[in-house]
Amino acid sequence: MTGLSVRDLVVRYEGPGRGWTTAVDRVDLDVADGEVLALLGPSGSGKSSLLRAVAGLEPPAAGSVTWSGRDVTSVPVHRRGFGLMFQDGQLFPHRSVAGNVAYGLVMAEVPRAERGRRVELLLETVGLAGYGSRAVSTLSGGQAQRVALARALAPAPQLLLLDEPLSALDRGLREHLTGELHDVLRSTGTTALYVTHDHDEAFTVADRVAVMVDGRLAQVDSPGRLWHAPVSREVAAFLGYGPFLAAEVRGDAAHTLLGPVPVREPIAGPVVVGVGPSALQVVTGEGWTGGDDLDVPVVATRFVRGRTEVDVTLPDGSAATAVAPGATAVADRAQVRLDPDAAVVVPA
Ligand SMILES: Nc1ncnc2c1ncn2[C@@H]1O[C@H](COP(=O)(O)OP(=O)(O)OP(=O)(O)O)[C@@H](O)[C@H]1O
């Protein structure tokens, strides 16, 4: 048995009054050796609690944590050999950049020369070659998080646990560092559990994504499968699908007021169709063919990231957003069309 195995794990907190909060509710999870798994879920869903229990920072009420076949459930945090990185990297303020990165190597009694080489290599890996002698107080937020990453990677941990490592950074930097983090984790062959509430981040960084809702894992899948085949309306909604249209399955399609959507996997019982974030398109000029396209009232328009987003009301009363390329002028009504490949069929 290699990798991480979590079985039947329960984490509970005693409430301020009577009663307990069950933050992690009988979770089973496997992370293969060298795999990066993102734990994705809304605020309060239990992601940090699960990660902290794996780290050994939170004693589980039940269940087990196994690494490489060894039960570590009651092994203290510093004996697990796992690396940790949090939202606020919390660098040691009185050490230089190199001093911070070398910290775990000093603890592990790695000889000085070897230490120096490793620190340099890691700084290069995180794009901070030549920064070794800088005081950490002179770094930008993004640079400081890269130092924190280099420090976490320095002892070559068997398993790296990251809790929202980029969420304190602004969007542009976060997107950039997410890509870098992906490359660094791959190139170092690090097994990682990565907590985030941001699906773009999870999809970029991870081999597989576990969606956590109310203390349970609702779905664990590759980013592609998760996106194209969410198992429930709840998971689809969390990924950004919506509104959900009434639908009736006939043959291999689910028929909606905006036309048919292919049923990719058989679903027993009633279904609804989740409209993907760019699935509804504004049809302009001669593109209008009638057919399944609908003419609907416009509620608002805005220009976002190089395209026009148009809020409309569908005939069933649901609010939806349609997209148009560039800065498209839209009046008080718009013709919209559903791209069936950008919608999903899920259980109602
Ligand atoms: N130390 C604590 N004492 C009491 N309740 C806690 C404690 N830590 C977390 N909780 C509760 O446990 C539940 C799960 O919290 P947790 O921090 O694990 O969620 P999360 O998914 O990581 O959320 P976020 O994305 O907001 O960090 C929440 O209801 C939270 O209020």
UniProtKB/TrEMBL annotation:
<keyword id="KW-0813">Transport</keyword>
<dbReference type="InterPro" id="IPR017871">
    <property type="entry name" value="ABC_transporter-like_CS"/>
</dbReference>
<dbReference type="GO" id="GO:0015418">
    <property type="term" value="F:ABC-type quaternary ammonium compound transporting activity"/>
</dbReference>
<keyword id="KW-0408">Iron</keyword>
<dbReference type="Pfam" id="PF00005">
    <property type="entry name" value="ABC_tran"/>
</dbReference>
<dbReference type="GO" id="GO:0016887">
    <property type="term" value="F:ATP hydrolysis activity"/>
</dbReference>
<feature type="domain" description="ABC transporter">
    <location>
        <begin position="4"/>
        <end position="239"/>
    </location>
</feature>
<keyword id="KW-0406">Ion transport</keyword>
<keyword id="KW-0410">Iron transport</keyword>
<keyword id="KW-0067">ATP-binding</keyword>
<dbReference type="GO" id="GO:0016020">
    <property type="term" value="C:membrane"/>
</dbReference>
<keyword id="KW-0472">Membrane</keyword>
<keyword id="KW-0547">Nucleotide-binding</keyword>
<dbReference type="GO" id="GO:0015408">
    <property type="term" value="F:ABC-type ferric iron transporter activity"/>
</dbReference>
<keyword id="KW-1003">Cell membrane</keyword>
<dbReference type="InterPro" id="IPR027417">
    <property type="entry name" value="P-loop_NTPase"/>
</dbReference>
<dbReference type="InterPro" id="IPR003593">
    <property type="entry name" value="AAA+_ATPase"/>
</dbReference>
<dbReference type="InterPro" id="IPR015853">
    <property type="entry name" value="ABC_transpr_FbpC"/>
</dbReference>
<dbReference type="GO" id="GO:0005524">
    <property type="term" value="F:ATP binding"/>
</dbReference>
<protein>
    <recommendedName>
        <fullName>ABC-type quaternary amine transporter</fullName>
        <ecNumber>7.6.2.9</ecNumber>
    </recommendedName>
</protein>
<dbReference type="InterPro" id="IPR050093">
    <property type="entry name" value="ABC_SmlMolc_Importer"/>
</dbReference>
<dbReference type="InterPro" id="IPR003439">
    <property type="entry name" value="ABC_transporter-like_ATP-bd"/>
</dbReference>
